[in-house]
Design goal:
Rossmann fold, RNA-binding, Glutamyl-tRNA Synthetase, domain 3, Glutamyl-tRNA Synthetase, domain 2, 13 helices, 506 residues, alpha/beta
RNA sequence: GCCCCGGUGGUGUAGCCCGGUCAAGCAUGUUACCCUCUCGAGGUAGCGACGCGAGUUCAAAUCUCGCCCGGGGCACCA
C-alpha cells in the first residue's frame, strides 16, 4: 500500500486522525508510582562519614522536590551504624548543606538512636529461627559462601543463639568472635543472600552513643527497620544500593515494602565525587581542603559562587536516569550565570594592569550605575590623568587608534611603549570603538582564583586546576562583604572569598 | 567469574511501557548575525545523535533475538 493510499484509508476509517497533536515533552520530574498526595514519605539517608557533595545535594533535591509535589514528609536520617567511620563534623555538614540548598526536612534522626528497636527485631529473627549466631572467622564464611555450603552454626537451636545474643549485648565477646547471620539461601546466585551478616561487634566508641553499644546492625537490616519506623513510602536513591536482601528482611519481619526508584550516581566530568579519589588530594595538600572551590563538596561549590537555586534548577533540568552520565560543569554554570546576571553589581577589574597616563584628561567625577538595566545603586569615581588598563587590552590597540574608557570618555593611544600614554579624545560614544574597563590610582589590589577540573582526561591531577590572576579593582570593591558575588565585566562573575581574594565562578 | 542495569548530537536529557504525529524536541556547547558603553544577559539563524546486526511489521529510536560497549553489585561498608 502506498503512503497516499494509507492516508486515504486512515482518514476514511478514523476521521481527524490525520491531524495529530504535537506531544509535549515532560517537564520536571516524572510522577511517582503509587504516590498519594498527602500520604507520601521520603528520606535523606546520608552516612556521616564525609562531607556533603553535589551528588548528595542532587539526590536530596530530588527527594525534596517530590516531598513538595506530593505534600509529603521528609526525613533526614543519619545512617551511622559504623562507629569507626562516623564523625560529628559530618553530621553537621549535611545539616548546614541542606539548609543552604533550601532542602527542608520535617524530621531528623540518627539510626543510632534506634539501636534498641533494631535489637528487638534482631532478637525476633533469632527466636523464630530466621537468624543465627555464627563464630566462623571471616575467611571461612567467605569460603563457604562461595561454595554455597552452610556452616555448622546454621542449625543451632534458638535458645543457644539467644544465649550468645545476650552475651553479645553484655559485651562478653570481642570483635570478630561472633556475628549474627540472617538465614537466606546458601545456593542463591546472589552471594549477598547467602546468609548475610546483620549484626557484628565493633569495638570502637560512637560519636553519639559513646561506649553504650558495641553490637551494631549492618546497613540492610537497619534500613529495613528504619524505613518502617519512619513510614517511608518512596525510596529514591542511587543504584549502588541493592534491594533484594532488604526485601527478604522485610518479609521475614513483616514490614511494609516501600517503592524503590534507583538512579545512576551523579558524576561530574573531571571532578569525581568519590571520597577515595578526593581524600588523597586533601591529604597531599593538592587542594586547600574539602571546601576548596575546585571540590565537588557543597562547601566548595558555595565558595565557587554557585547558588543553591542553580543546583536546584540544574537537578530539575537533568532529572535522574539509570544511564551512566558525566555532567559537564557548563550546564550548571550557565544556569548559575543567568541567576547571577540580574542581581550582580558590575565592578571594573583590570587584570595584569598597566599604567596609562592621559594627556589633557579632564578631571571628572563620574557616577556609574552598578548594573546596566537594574537599579542596584551606583558608585562615584573621581578621575584625573592616571589610569590603569589591562595589559591584554593594551596589546590589542595600535598606536594612534582610539578606544573608550568604559562609561567615561574616549582616549587616543599616543604611545604604546613600556610607559604607555594617551590623550583625551572626546566624550561622544563612537560606534565601533573598543571599550575597556579601567581603574584609577585609588584602586584596590585583588587576586582572582579560577577553578578548573581536578583531573585531566588521563585521570591525573590537573596541576593547572587553580589559576591565579592578579589585578586592580576600583575602589568600590572595599564595600563588598565576604560572600558577595559581583561581575567583573569582560571577565566573569566572582565571589569575594576572603579579603583581597575573589573566586571566579564562571 | 557470577548476577543485575543501561547505551539518543561534544555534554545532559525528552521520546521507548501504548510502533506511524520523530527526515527526532529541549538545554548546554559551538558558528554567524542582532541588541547592549561587558567577551555577561537577551534575540535570530545554522551545526550536531537513535551502539552494531538480524527479525517482526505496510511502518521500528520505540517490539524480539544476537553481538558489542559501559556502569553497578557479589563486605563482619553504607
Amino acid at each position: 500500500m502506498s503512503l497516499s493510499q494509507q492516508e486515504a484509508l486512515l482518514s476514511q476509517k478514523y476521521p481527524g486522525a490525520e491531524q495529530p497533536v504535537q506531544k509535549e515533552g515532560r517537564v520536571g520530574l516524572p510522577p511517582l508510582p503509587n504516590a498519594v498526595k498527602g500520604k507520601a514519605a521520603f528520606r535523606l539517608p546520608p552516612e556521616p562519614s564525609g562531607f556533603m557533595t553535589v551528588g548528595h545535594a542532587m539526590a536530596f533535591t530530588i527527594n525534596f522536590l517530590y516531598r513538595q509535589e506530593y505534600d509529603g514528609e521528609l526525613w533526614l536520617r543519619f545512617e551511622d551504624t559504623n562507629p569507626r567511620k562516623v564523625e560529628p563534623r559530618y553530621y553537621e555538614s549535611f545539616r548546614s548543606g541542606s539548609k543552604w540548598l533550601g532542602v527542608e526536612w520535617d524530621h531528623e534522626k540518627n539510626v543510632s538512636d534506634d539501636i534498641e528497636t533494631i535489637y528487638a527485631h534482631g532478637r525476633r529473627l533469632l527466636e523464630e529461627g530466621k537468624a543465627y549466631a555464627c563464630s566462623c572467622d571471616a575467611d571461612k564464611v567467605k569460603k563457604l559462601r562461595f561454595e554455597g555450603k552452610a556452616c555448622e552454626h546454621r542449625d543451632s537451636p534458638a535458645d543457644a543463639n539467644l544465649r550468645v545474643w545476650v552475651e553479645l549485648l553484655a559485651k562478653k565477646h570481642k570483635e570478630g568472635d561472633y556475628v549474627i547471620r540472617f538465614k537466606g539461601d546458601m545456593q542463591n546466585v546472589n552471594y549477598s543472600l547467602r546468609d548475610t551478616n546483620i549484626f557484628r561487634v565493633i569495638d570502637h566508641p560512637h560519636p553519639l552513643t559513646g561506649e553504650k553499644y558495641s553490637l551494631w546492625p549492618t546497613y540492610d537490616l537497619a534500613n529495613a527497620v528504619e524505613d518502617e519506623i519512619c513510614g517511608i513510602t518512596h525510596i529514591l536513591r542511587s543504584s549502588e544500593f541493592r534491594n533484594e536482601l532488604q526485601q527478604l528482611l522485610r518479609e521475614a519481619l513483616g514490614l511494609r515494602a516501600p517503592e524503590v526508584i534507583q538512579f545512576s550516581r551523579f558524576n561530574f566530568k573531571g571532578t569525581p565525587v568519590s571520597k577515595r579519589l578526593l581524600r588523597p588530594l586533601v591529604e597531599q595538600k593538592l587542594v586547600s581542603g574539602w571546601d576548596d572551590p575546585r571540590m565537588p563538596t557543597v562547601e566548595g561549590l558555595k565558595r565557587r559562587g554557585v547558588l543553591p537555586q542553580a543546583i536546584r534548577d540544574f537537578t530539575l533540568q537533568v532529572g535522574y536516569t539509570k544511564t551512566e552520565h558525566e555532567y559537564d560543569w557548563s550546564i550548571l554554570l550557565s544556569i548559575n550565570r543567568k541567576l547571577l546576571d540580574p542581581v550582580s553589581k558590575r565592578l571594573f577589574f583590570v587584570p595584569d594592569p598597566v599604567e596609562l597616563s592621559v594627556k589633557g584628561a579632564p578631571e571628572r567625577k563620574v557616577t556609574i550605575p552598578y548594573h546596566p538595566q537594574n537599579d542596584l545603586g551606583s558608585r562615584t569615581i573621581q578621575t584625573a590623568g592616571r589610569f590603569y588598563i589591562a595589559g591584554g587590552d593594551l596589546k590589542a590597540i595600535k598606536e594612534g587608534s582610539v578606544f573608550r574608557l568604559m562609561d567615561l570618555y574616549n582616549v587616543k593611544l599616543t604611545s604604546a611603549g613600556p610607559t604607555p600614554t594617551a590623550e583625551y579624545a572626546g566624550d561622544e560614544l563612537l560606534e565601533g570603538t573598543r571599550k575597556f574597563q579601567w581603574a584609577t590610582p585609588a584602586r584596590v589590589e585583588v587576586k582572582v582564583l579560577a577553578p578548573d577540573v581536578l583531573f585531566d582526561e588521563k585521570g591525573e591531577f590537573n596541576r593547572d586546576s587553580l589559576k591565579e590572576v592578579r589585578g586592580y579593582v576600583e575602589e568600590a570593591f572595599t564595600k563588598l562583604k565576604a560572600g558577595d558575588i559581583v561581575q567583573f565585566p569582560r571577565f566573569g562573575f566572582c565571589r569575594l572569598d576572603s579579603p583581597g581574594t575573589m573566586v571566579l565562578s564562571a
